[in-house]
Amino acid sequence: MTKKANKGRVVFMNGELIPENQANISIYDSALMFGDMIFEMTRSFNKQQFKLREHLERLYSGIKVLRIPLKMTIDEMEKHCYEVIEANEITFESNDEHRLMIDVTRGILGLYDGVVGTHSGPNVIIADFPLRWTVQHNAHQYDEGLEVIIPSQRAIPAELLDPKIKNRSRIHYLMANIEVSNYQGNNVWALLLDTDGYVAEGTGANFFIIKEGVIYTPEARNILRGISRDYIFTLSDELGITCIEKNIELFDVLTADESFFTSTPYCMLPVVRCQGVDIGSGSVGPIFQLLLKTWSKNVGVDIVGQIKQYSRDCSGKRPNGGLTPYSFRN
């Protein structure tokens, strides 16, 4: 069989596979006008997608709630995801993992429909790029841990804009990150409180504490219900560790034994300080390590080892002059 030529990454867009640099939407699209777009981002382990169906189910829940008139079924969406992965595999290094970015917009606003000669109706865009782009500059955080700072920006409660819908109207996340990036330190992330003063979530990550061998995480009403968050409950059951949803106050965080974030690309990242106060011993804790080791075993990938290899491969170079979603200073 003749090997396919590597012509660069492609993107699924509205029924076609097109070159990544040609995947564009109109300036009159509702996504640009209102942030009217829902999305999912996934990752693979050993090139196998992890919980893709669960991500798509959450996506389609958002489509339903936001009343986006998408005719594509979830089975068709899943099929197209694998088509994109197959088409792009030739562009990936042998140790790369596939990170899908699935975007659904409502499409061009009716006011401009038929005027600008662009696609009419919802846009579906499925991109696929190497996981290393997201994680390669965070390898040191598995050893050093993160410090969380409570910004003045609060999480938006479900009664105003339901965070259980994974949408791109995320300016509050951005404002929290900009504020927290002004604190000294290299591993400082934001931890949002809800409008009742309880801990809600990070800016794209779910939050957990551990106290006396029990894992606690905020109740699900005012947060994005993460796929990785759900998997912590699975791991806890497997290990015989109690995991409880409850209202968490700042006091609970400061007096916890351990703490961590979960998110799709990193799986888990340890949190060792809050507001300048050590959590527990101020170092990565044993239950965090056990959970992450079990996760690695279950998926057949040394999660931390892989990310550290990505870091060595990139020689520590920061992207775009040093700017990241968590740092806004060169």
Short description:
This protein has helices at residues 30-34, 52-66, 74-88, 132-135, 141-144, 171-180, 227-239, 250-254, 286-299, 303-314; strands spanning 10-13, 16-19, 37-41, 44-45, 48-49, 98-105, 123-130, 146-149, 188-193, 199-202, 206-211, 214-217, 243-245, 258-263, 267-274, 277-278. It is of the alpha+beta class.
Any overview of this molecule?
Helix content is 29%, strand content 23%. It has 330 residues and is of the alpha+beta class. The model has no long low-confidence stretch (mean pLDDT 93).
Alpha-beta classification: alpha+beta
Query: Cα-atom Rg, whole angstroms?
Result: 20 Å
Mean pLDDT score = 93
Morphology: globular
Q: What is the number of domains? A: 2
The stretches of 5 or more residues where confidence is low (pLDDT under 50) are none
Number of helices: 10
**Secondary-structure element series:** EEHEEEHHEEHHEHEEEEHEHEEEHH
CATH architecture of the largest domain: Alpha-Beta Barrel
User: What is the helix content?
Assistant: 25-40%
Strand composition percent: 15-25%
Number of strands: 16
Distance between the termini: 48 Å
**What do we call the CATH topology of the largest domain?**
D-amino Acid Aminotransferase, Chain A, domain 2
Name of the CATH class of the largest domain:
Alpha Beta
Largest sheet: 9 strands, mixed
Supply the CATH superfamily name of the largest domain: D-amino Acid Aminotransferase, subunit A, domain 2
